[in-house]
Design goal:
heterotrimer, A alpha/beta (about 375), B mainly beta (about 100), C alpha/beta (about 450), B: about 100 residues, five-stranded mixed beta sheet, two-stranded antiparallel sheet, 8 strands, C: alpha/beta, FAD/NAD(P)-binding domain, Arc Repressor Mutant, subunit A
Chain lengths: ~375, ~100, ~450
């Protein structure tokens, strides 16, 4: 008996936020789409991250992508037909008094960012404390981005997946892809149970697992996996609107928190753990939680009164220059990449899906993405 | 209206006084905070999500339904905390000032 | 070899007998317990300044309670005893504990989890009211604080604890309005052959039931709970059930003690990455263990009701047995005869426990059919209808996925009181067998952990 075969214009491997949003946007452009996911839509990095929807703090080159995402977030409830708890109450990025140069960098960044349309306000001293009285005494400066916010990562990618399915995408969960090969004009994507998916275009959005595929296509990348340290408190009276984070070169000091309207405070950051992508498991190492809780009290001492009720981690993927792999394959026509978002892919996710849909559909995109090209790793190899 | 819990004995213990929502409540040494509050009153807290008053559930530190706020903005699990003289707790959530009480 | 570091978590009957066995072998285990005093739940010790005698507190179990307490009174000087200490997480053979806001790491070569059990619940409309308590809570109020949970108490559920607590309340002078058992008497009769594995316990149980009748307490069996009716501020006013003949009966009360026997506390086993299995007999997930209590994680053992609910006396035997397993695995001499004896004792308790499960089943159909407007997740106030709607709208047919979308299990109790009934609802709504729905994955902290912690000096 022939194994079942499915055919479409585009096969997307990996249904995180990028894959599932790309599926929806491709459908809206009239392309037929197959979306494949080894587990459940949005279960991996897209579902376990902190939930920051922020533009400020990103490398300048990423701002056009982030700026493209911003209006999508604002319209998401209409686009998806469900509430993913996007809250635009701003984002505050602060620095400590032992790194006064960071405060200067806030001012420089704000000036440059304004040129892309991102308006930031830098505050210090009494003005900062009057506006954000919960900040700890070590904080000396803050950069406030009014039109940034946060959302519920557990809900977003699955909502995109359902919207894509309603729009006619064929979504296959619990479908582990074992191989993807170009055979003539088409890609043959084979699942563990023998099903075959064929399309002239493949979009690889398989996150931590994408490197295996790109290597098989002759474009290996130095991708590593790490697990974020995440905690959540019990619900407490809603008091803090913006997401708040520390700008610092030290991983252990890089902590952030956001309060949801139900009252829980979500805390992320500080040292990360090794994870186990081969068994899709990530375990929080208690010393990382302890480090995070110590650091979060420097940022907002009032949080010290609260109780943590749950911690979690997940599998995020990183490249050494902290930029993702995005764009067309340089070797294989019809193959496109969008993975490795270095723990910063939530806000840009819907824009990435939109950009890849545009690129696949029209052959080009108006948003600069070349700086994320896969060839930046191949060039080094060739040298 | 009298308290929810009914003392059936062991009343020959040293008295102590706590504050519940600013009002003095007489209890006994050896009472848990939960018992101290409920032998005089009807509730421990008000549910965050609109389904009314709560008065604890498991009494063994498993259900986590008996956490109360202290007047200083701290948190106590009433069933596993001993009542002690001068403890001041609130059965309502404080207003949104908790982050600034440091 | 340097003395192996053995850590026992829990100072109830299993933990105490386990530590005793280890101390007798010349070791000095760490014994970590959350309680202020040893004894666990069923042998919970009253505060120092209470004066009730053992007979009044523990009834027929007075001698066993005294023996256990006296054992630990001596043992506490021979072990590294850490009361009021929560193990909130673990990793890499290190436990992370907190005591009065102070954190301490405890390393182990062998870990014996004697974490006990909690009441097993199913949602009833209004069970989230002030005045609704678990059966265990009703007992603790009496045993440990000499209080009744209310002026007029209804006891509802099933299992030996239902009759025991109701009887204890009557004996202590509290007003018991009714005892409402969801299990029909016929099930008890059918379970008799198994229950006869422990004739003494069976006889005691019968005595309790007779005692209630003689005290004039209405005892109804085969009831279907309909509602815990609330008053104006959301507090308990009455309990409405359908009795065995189909008639609706209402019992006015100001407090309800409810529960269906017990379920193991398994969060630490989960964090220790022990494998679980679905136990058809008790219709719940339990930690996989061998006959002596070895889990699938190297160096991790389980004993007592935290491993499998067999009762307090069985817990003492299984605590000893797990200690012998650990000692044997560490290369210490162990008596085969002792092991055989303990296994035989546990086999009798196993049979009796199977009888209890047959006589007093957890009402899984009731749970699956929880009315839409009834709260399932007490912590987050999520109703059965909301959970069903999420399953329908998203296709979520697995416990953790449904939790991510519905918030059932996301609250402070981490699914202790909603996880099992939530799974039944998800199974029914998605047309999956309940085993396929899986179980809520345990995450640290095992119980709420303060953000502000002092470090161990």
């Amino acid at each position: 008996m022939r194994p079942s075969e499915h055919v479409a214009d585009v096969v997307i491997i990996g249904a995180g936020i990028v894959g599932s949003s790309a599926a929806l946007f491709l459908r809206r452009r009239g392309r037929s789409v197959i979306l494949l996911e080894s587990g459940l839509v949005g279960q991996q990095a897209s579902g376990v991250n902190f939930g920051n929807v922020r533009r400020q703090g990103r490398p300048m080159a990423q701002l056009p992508i982030a700026n493209r995402a911003s209006p999508i977030w604002r319209e998401l409830k209409t686009l998806l037909g469900e509430d993913v708890e996007y809250l635009e109450a701003g984002h505050l990025r602060v620095c400590y008094r032992d790194r006064p140069e960071m405060a200067d960098s806030f001012v420089d960044y704000a000036r440059e960012a304004a040129q892309t349309g991102l308006e930031l306000e830098v505050l210090t001293g009494n003005a900062l404390r009057a506006r954000f009285p919960f900040l700890g005494p070590e904080v000396i400066a803050g950069s406030f981005s009014a039109r940034d916010g946060h959302a519920n990562p557990r809900l977003v990618a699955p909502a995109f997946g359902r919207a894509a399915a309603r729009a006619g995408a064929a979504v296959f969960e619990n479908t582990m892809v074992t191989s993807a090969e170009k055979v003539g004009e088409d890609f043959h994507v084979l699942a563990q149970d023998g099903r075959i998916f064929r399309a002239p275009v493949v979009l690889l959005t398989a996150g931590a697992w994408a490197g295996d595929f790109s290597a098989k296509f002759g474009e290996p990348v130095p991708l590593v996996t790490r697990g974020p340290t995440m905690s959540v408190t019990e619900p407490v009276p809603y008091a803090i609107g913006p997401g708040v984070g520390v700008a610092t070169p030290l991983e252990s000091e890089t902590v952030y928190f956001r309060q949801i309207t139900r009252g829980n405070v979500i805390i992320g950051g500080s040292t990360r753990q090794d994870v186990f992508p081969e068994i899709r498991r990530a375990y929080v190492e208690p010393p990382n939680t302890l480090s995070q809780l110590r650091q979060i009290q420097r940022l907002a001492p009032g949080l010290g009164k609260l109780n943590i009720i749950r911690v979690w981690s997940g599998i995020e993927s990183y490249l050494p220059d902290s930029l993702p792999v995005v764009g067309p394959s340089r070797h294989v026509s019809g193959l496109f990449y969008a993975f490795g978002f270095c723990g910063a892919g939530f806000q840009t996710g819907p824009a990435m899906g939109d950009i890849m849909a545009e690129l696949i559909d029209t052959g080009a995109t108006e948003t600069p993405i070349d700086f994320c090209g896969v060839d930046r790793f191949q060039a080094a190899d060739a040298a | 209206m009298a308290g929810r819990f009914v003392r059936l004995g062991e009343t020959e213990r040293a008295p102590l006084s706590i504050l519940v929502d600013g009002e003095a409540v007489q209890a006994l040494e050896g009472d848990t905070l939960l018992v101290a509050v409920l032998q005089a009153g009807r509730r421990l807290r008000v549910s965050e999500f609109g389904d009314g008053e709560r008065s604890g559930f498991c009494l063994m530190g498993a259900c986590q339904d008996c956490w109360v706020w202290t007047a200083e903005g701290g948190r106590l699990r009433a069933c596993t905390t001993l009542a002690r003289e001068g403890l001041s707790i609130r059965t309502q959530q404080p207003e949104a000032t908790w982050p600034n009480l440091a | 070899m340097a003395e192996p570091r053995i850590v026992v978590v829990g100072a109830g009957p299993a933990g105490v007998r386990c530590a005793e066995t280890l101390a007798a072998a010349g070791l000095r285990p760490v014994v970590i317990d959350e309680g202020r005093r040893d004894g666990g739940q069923i042998y919970r010790r009253q505060p120092d300044n209470f004066r009730r005698p053992y007979e009044k507190l523990y009834g027929t179990e007075a001698a066993r309670a005294r023996a256990l307490h006296e054992t630990f009174d001596v043992l506490r000087e021979q072990v590294d005893y850490r009361p009021e200490t929560l193990v909130w997480s673990m990793g890499g053979k290190t436990l992370h504990t907190v005591r009065e806001g102070r954190h301490a790491a405890v390393e182990y070569d062998a870990l014996i989890l004697c974490t006990g059990a909690i009441d097993r619940l199913a949602p009833i409309k209004g069970w989230n009211s002030a005045g609704a308590y678990s059966l265990g809570a009703a007992q603790i109020a009496l045993k440990s604080q000499a209080c009744a949970i209310g002026r007029e108490v209804v006891f509802l559920g099933s299992g030996p604890l239902l009759y025991l607590v109701a009887s204890q309340y009557v004996a202590a002078g509290a007003k018991v309005v009714a005892v409402l058992d969801t299990s029909p008497v016929g099930r008890r009769i059918a379970a008799l052959p198994k229950l006869l594995a422990q004739p003494g316990v069976l006889w005691t149980g019968l005595g309790l039931t007779l005692g209630l009748y003689r005290a004039g307490v209405p005892v109804l069996t085969g009831v279907t709970p309909l509602e815990i009716a609330q008053g104006g501020a959301g507090e308990v006013r009455s309990v409405l059930v359908r009795d065995g003949t189909g008639r609706e009966r209402r019992f006015d009360c100001d407090a309800v003690g409810m529960g269906w026997h017990l379920r193991p506390e398994t969060q630490l086993a989960d964090l220790a990455r022990c494998e679980f299995r679905f136990d058809d007999s008790s219709r719940q997930w339990v930690v996989k263990r061998d006959e002596m209590g070895r889990s699938t994680s190297s160096g991790v053992y389980l004993a007592g009701d935290g491993a499998y609910v067999l009762g307090a006396r069985a817990a003492e035997a299984s605590g000893r047995l797990a200690a012998l397993a650990a000692l044997g695995d560490l290369g210490r001499p162990v008596s085969d005869a002792a092991v055989a004896g303990l296994k035989a004792e546990l086999a009798r308790w196993d049979r009796f426990a199977a009888g209890l499960r047959q006589a007093f089943p957890w009402p899984f159909s009731l749970a699956a059919q929880t009315p839409d407007e009834t709260v399932v997740c007490r912590c987050e106030t999520i109703t059965a209808g909301e959970l069903r709607q999420v399953v329908r709208a998203t296709g979520a047919a697995e416990a953790n996925r449904a939790k991510a979308f519905s918030r059932v299990g996301m609250g402070r109790c981490q699914g202790r009181y909603c996880g099992q009934s939530g799974a039944e609802i998800i199974a029914c709504a998605s047309g999956s067998p309940v085993e396929q729905v899986g179980r809520l994955r345990g995450q640290a902290p095992v119980k709420p952990l303060p953000v502000h912690l002092e470090e161990e000096a």
